[in-house]
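During the reporting period, we have paired protein sequences with backbone structure tokens. One record among many follows, to show the layout:
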Amino acid sequence: MHYYGTLGPSACDLDTLKALFASGMSGVRLNLSHRGLNQSKAWIDILHAAKADCELLIDLNGPELRLGDLKAPIELKPGELYTFQDLPDVLYQGVEVGDQLLVDDGRLLFEVIGPGLKTRVLRAGTLQSHKSVAVVGKSFPVPTLTQADLDNIALIRTYGVTAVMLPFVRNSSDIHHLRQALAAAGAQETRILAKIENREGVLRLPEFIEEVDEVVIARGDLGQAYPLYDLIGVQKDLAVLCRQHQKPFMVVTQLLQSMIENEVPTRAEVSDIFNAVLDGASSLMVTGEMAIGKHPVEVMDYLVKTAQSALAWKQKHEAADHF
């Protein structure tokens, strides 16, 4: 079992990273939607000082739609009108009046009421730079890799990156494009983790599952593609498929979300981790809980100990069933 955290303001100093590794962390994710490899050099240097041979996973932009740069976070209230001026061009061309926009893994919801992406706030919250955007029931033709992705891939060997996470994988062609880019950078040995985050990825995973090193069940955006009450069924179907193909898989998103603020997780969160392990997950990852949370070391400690408890329970009952 592998345990991954995410680099961020709460987890980028030497003492914290050493404590995280001491708690059982296997490696870390760097979210390139917020900052590139060159901009993260100081963090990466400290990471390798904490553990020279640690795993470093980079999470690319991929074919994901995101907000651009905002001058400052914007507090929005229900019913308020807001016109987006910082979205990818493809949305301005393809979104229609009546469409609904989900922002920041569905935390905010907007209804389009006029041209130029004039919207009404249906679910309020804080609008922040670089957060994910999805249009309910629609997909858009977006390239597999952005120029920023290609620039970062070219630096993989320089920074000791061990694996690449490709968001919103839709088909085998996406994996092919990534492999070409890795080969061009002389980094063809880098592991590929396919993030399954939309309906097309779920439906077509059987076509490309053998082409990747690991499958990532990324529940944040999957929870926008499917009703939340269906999400865990989709997660379990993906787990079954991975087991059938003997393909390692990771479960990620909101495993310990409450610990961004709280020192102790909820019972539902530890149950979620426990059941992911029983379903056969080969790795688990925390994101914001560690990157921006108040208790990053405690987060990793609960993640590892809960998973170890699940593995022990599983081993005990498998042994009992054997006899």
Q: What stands out?
A: The chain has two domains: 2-64+143-322, 74-135. The first strand starts at residue 2 and ends at 6. DSSP finds twelve helices and 15 strands in the chain.
